[in-house]
Amino acid sequence: MSHPFRTLSAGALLIALVVGSALSSGVVRFDFAASDHHGGGETEFRVQARQTESGRVEVRAQARMSADEWTTHTPDARFLPIPTEPGRWYSSNVFAVGGSAAAPDISDPGAYTQFYVAEAVDYYERHGRSEMLRYYNSAESMVGQWYLFAYDENDTYIAHRIASRLGQSASDIVGPDGYPIPLVLIGAATEEGSWVDYLHVNAETGAVQLKHSWVVRHDGIVLGSGWYEDGPSREHAPGAFAQSFVERALAMYQALGREATLEHYNSPESVDGEWYVSIYELDGTRLAHPYLPIGGNLLDGGPDVTGRHFREEFIAIEDRGWVGYVFLNPDSGEQEQKHTWVVRHDGLLFASGWYEAGVVASSDGDS
């Protein structure tokens, strides 16, 4: 789908137009191929000429990609003068003729993802929704890990590489960690485009990886695509994983709003092993927690077993930061060191962390 812009002088297009001055009245077309390559994704060009009722000769150019419909490019200066000087070449003004910009290399996956989605939007505009869906639901449109997913006005899948997904409601699908991926994608999409990160099963490898998706809202539907990479490891980079876990909660809050976010993080579906998100008011009132009662207060309790007043440290976070303390690990039944990442956003505190097995000495909170 790479079609570089080409700027052509109409002097190169007006071949044989002097002959046009001898045309009889009526419309006569001259089609000239102006591309060295046909098919294979190249853009084809041709020149059209006609004699008008006044006797003047008018010229224009047309371009198309493969078997697409011709697009007409009409310059401002496009009529041969009367009288025409025999043997003299005439040129119109210069104008751009061509398709979309060249595709970025897949070594820049972010740029290529945005290009892939922009091409889908362009295809929609040129061919309509039905043809766009036919093409992007076919293997022909897929490039390695890139494929188009799309949702209609009712949040129903209308494009996906997995055919069985078509017709399903976005609300019925969640990620491997219980995250409501489609709903967040739909909520985040804008006409300008937005990035959304989440854990997803890579259909090519079967592995759960971090996926970065670019989503665009266009003509009432949402179109997107993305690429995979290995995200932070729970075992080898638990601090980075905790941060990414909270970032996904913030993304949901931005896309779906407060009530939907609180509902999700109060449910057991939001728990991923030892990882969960808790949400508090700035005064410590608990709004979301999969294990503790809602409405309780974070400050209702003393220091940890080492004497550290970690609860007050939570409340004191002004932007984002780590809080380290010793706490009862419900899985092991032991008092263990816990590292919690806390972010203040929109008047709330979002937190998630992990236990360091076997460690009970209080730390400075770094991970």
Provide the fold topology.
Layout: E1 5-8, H1 10-13, H2 17-20, E2 32-33, E3 43-51, E4 57-65, E5 71-73, E6 95-98, H3 109-127, H4 129-136, E7 149-151, E8 157-159, H5 181-188, E9 194-201, E10 208-218, E11 221-229, H6 238-256, H7 258-265, E12 278-281, E13 286-288, H8 310-316, E14 320-329, E15 334-345, E16 348-356
Antiparallel strand pairs: 1-6, 2-3, 3-4, 4-5, 7-8, 7-11, 9-10, 10-11, 12-13, 12-16, 14-15, 15-16
Helix pairs in contact: 3-4, 5-6, 6-7
Describe it.
The chain is of the alpha+beta class. The protein folds into three domains: 5-98; 109-229, PAS domain (Beta-Lactamase, 2-Layer Sandwich); 270-356, Beta-Lactamase (2-Layer Sandwich), CATH 3.30.450.20. 21% of the residues lie in helices and 28% in strands. It has helices at 10-13, 17-20, 109-127, 129-136, 181-188, 238-256, 258-265, 310-316; strands spanning 5-8, 32-33, 43-51, 57-65, 71-73, 95-98, 149-151, 157-159, 194-201, 208-218, 221-229, 278-281, 286-288, 320-329, 334-345, 348-356. The strands form four sheets. It has a five-stranded antiparallel sheet, with helices on both faces. It has a five-stranded antiparallel sheet with strand order 13-12-16-15-14, with helices on both faces. Helix 5 packs across helix 6 (238-256).
